TrEMBL record:
Signal peptide: none
InterPro entries linked: LOR, LOR_sf, Tubby-like_C
Organism, scientific name: Kitasatospora arboriphila
Protein name: LURP-one-related/scramblase family protein
Pfam short name (any one): LOR
Family: Belongs to the LOR family.
Lineage of source species: Bacteria, Bacillati, Actinomycetota, Actinomycetes, Kitasatosporales
Length: 182
């Protein structure tokens, strides 16, 4: 048990030092019809576009690569007790479901239930964009505004063993559910 805890702590420390981590910048447009914005890499290049679909019964976001090809769709799941959003791949196959807990007395609790793979947990302050995404206690991604002073801009650092598209789509879903009126 102690060995496992030590290994997890060392892996998380390596993540914190940037070993194999890719940083993305999420910057939402201040005024945009349908919530369109870009996800940039560390050098400022547009890597993904988040295309929010306005005037639909369900909140829908398409993630497109730099060439405009859809790589994922994030869509709300109405008529559910728990607030949740589904993530589908480019072919429309379910990849994951992001869920918010019904009751959370102290802090927000979120899970990312993956179709193929272990479930992920979200820990931290979701509303302020300061949280981590973990698999079995190992940090696979971190979302933080600490690197940016601009409103509605935050970083998503993703480790080498994570599916970047799924993590970014989950961040879009969490942001949409945590800030429904924005």
């Amino acid at each position: 048990m102690f060995q496992e805890r030590r290994e997890r702590r060392e892996a998380n420390r390596a993540f914190d030092h940037g070993d194999g981590v890719t940083r993305y910048r999420m910057q939402q447009k201040m005024v945009s019809i349908g919530d369109d914005y870009w996800i940039d890499d560390e050098s400022g290049d547009h890597v993904y576009k988040v295309d929010g679909k306005a005037l639909r019964a369900r909140r829908t976001f398409h993630l497109e690569d730099g060439q405009g090809h859809r790589v994922a769709t994030v869509q709300s799941r109405p008529l559910r007790i728990k607030d949740s959003m589904a993530i589908d791949d480019a072919e429309g196959h379910r990849v994951a479901v992001v869920k918010k807990a019904v009751i959370s007395p102290v802090r927000d609790r979120w899970t990312i239930k993956q179709e193929d793979g272990d479930d992920l947990t979200v820990d931290g302050n979701v509303v302020d964009h300061e949280y981590t995404i973990e698999r079995d206690g190992y940090k696979i991604a971190e979302v933080s505004k600490k690197w940016f002073r601009v409103r509605d801009t935050y970083a998503v650092d993703i480790g080498p063993d994570a599916d970047h598209t799924t993590v970014l789509a989950a961040a879009v879903a969490i942001d949409s559910m945590a800030h429904p009126g924005d």
